[in-house]
Design goal:
six-stranded antiparallel beta sheet
């Protein structure tokens, strides 16, 4: 029995030594529980503070918190996945009144300029007051919150969707799609217009300072390769719309400059549309390696459009190499809306959008969008009979993710807090005691 006791003591000593190094034995288990408990409490506290942060700061600074800053709806957002489906009602905003817009008839010279250079500027084409309504609605609903909210805001904001569907933009696009220079072969309507569909959108509230939004690029969710502007079925058409006055539009390498650097064989392939599936940026960088294209830092290669005002429209091919301009030293906002002819085909799953922001198209991959009745790519010229005042559209997110919803939820509430803490005369403040 003595040997058993000695063995027990040795084992106990060894066990205690092991306990000191690990999480075994009663004493160390209690120690580990205390440590883990502290960690759990700390992590939980940080999580709660993170969720409540907008409301807490609002309470401390203003004595009240907008109910939308509270986290009570977050469980429902995650469990019911209410962020996956969005319903919009048409024609009930000022932007949804077609009679509020003037008809814009493009001259033959303007059409020729677009197809030659890849861009076109239309001054005073849209009433500024309607853009102010769109801006206010965007600021109230999604504002300058992070990238996930910047794509496809038509799924969230009635005024934005109304603007894209009922404004004069669809008829302008239809004129270019129906032009003899376009590759569209389908039927023509009044004035030689061709069917036009909405494709995707993007908006951004740009801060006063900071780097460029993005370096030189083409729009890969709209453009299918190194393609000329007249190949509208695969290059499509983008409207860049400022929501502020006296701004600089995106810097662009116009089509005539780009093609001037190609040899005759390369230019022939370009105008035939043989560059489908290739990247214009890769082509430009290869030309630079051959000594046939200036460095992108050379200002002479960029078309710079300054002094653009609310109501002006800058049309450009998504296949043009372009870049955001330097910051202006003040906060500005803009919209980008893309339209496509009915003969365009869906060439990628989901449309333009960061995670959680792509509209789930019902049109199968590689199929034409014309005649599809797909709410993600509705026919806006001539406007489909189902798109009328009071009609409701249902949008479903292609790549919905609960975790992404948390970030979007949190970013939106911080945006609303930011509008309280740092009021800006240019930004309407929609958070007040009257909302409580």
């Amino acid at each position: 029995s003595r040997s058993v006791v000695q063995a027990s003591i040795i084992s106990s000593d060894l066990f205690e030594a092991m306990v000191d190094e690990g999480c075994s034995g009663r004493r160390s288990v209690h120690r580990c529980i205390r440590r883990c408990g502290c960690c759990a409490v700390g992590c939980s506290s940080l999580l709660v503070l993170g969720l409540l942060q907008p409301a807490v700061i609002a309470l401390l600074c203003f004595g009240f918190a907008d109910r939308t800053m509270m986290p009570w709806d977050l469980p429902g957002l995650l469990l019911a996945k209410s962020g996956r489906v969005h319903y919009r009602t048409l024609g009930e905003t000022l932007a949804g009144d077609p009679s509020a817009y003037d008809d814009v008839v493009l001259s033959d010279g303007q059409k020729a300029h677009y197809f030659r250079e890849g861009y076109l500027v239309l001054r005073g084409a849209v009433p500024p007051a309607l853009l102010d309504e769109v801006r206010a609605a965007l600021w109230a609903e999604v504002g300058p919150a992070s990238w996930p909210w910047a794509h496809n805001s038509f799924m969230n904001v009635d005024a934005v969707l109304d603007f894209y569907l009922f404004s004069n933009l669809p008829a302008i696009a239809a004129q270019l799609f129906g032009s003899p220079e376009s590759d569209v072969t389908g039927p023509r309507f009044e004035g030689g217009k061709s069917a036009a569909h909405f494709w995707s959108d993007f908006h951004y509230f740009r801060p006063a300072k900071g780097a460029k939004i993005i370096n030189y690029h083409t729009d890969s969710a709209e453009c299918e390769g190194i393609l000329p502007a007249n190949h509208t079925r695969t290059s499509r058409l983008r409207f860049w719309i400022t929501l502020d006055d006296d701004v600089t539009a995106p810097l662009m390498i116009n089509q005539s400059f780009f093609t001037s650097r190609l040899n005759s064989t390369e230019a022939e392939h370009f105008w035939k549309g043989d560059g489908k599936g290739h990247k214009a940026v890769d082509m430009m960088e290869w030309l630079q390696s051959e000594g046939r294209f200036p460095n992108v830092s050379h200002p002479g290669i960029w078309t710079t459009l300054s002094g653009v005002k609310r109501g002006d429209l800058v049309l450009h091919s998504p296949c043009l190499i372009h870049s955001s301009p330097p910051p202006l030293g003040r906060s500005v906002a803009f919209l980008c809306a893309t339209y496509a002819p009915g003969e365009s085909r869906v060439f990628r799953q989901g449309n333009a959008g960061a995670p959680g922001r792509s509209c789930a198209r019902s049109v199968p991959l590689h199929s034409e969008i014309g005649g599809s009745q797909d709410p993600c790519v509705p026919q806006v010229y001539p406007r489909d009979a189902s798109l009328h005042k009071g009609a409701q559209l249902r949008f479903e997110v292609e790549d919905y993710a609960p975790l992404q919803s948390i970030f979007m939820w949190w970013g939106w509430r911080n945006h609303r807090l930011h509008s309280l803490l740092f009021p800006d005369a240019r930004q309407p403040n929609h958070t007040s005691r009257s909302e409580l």
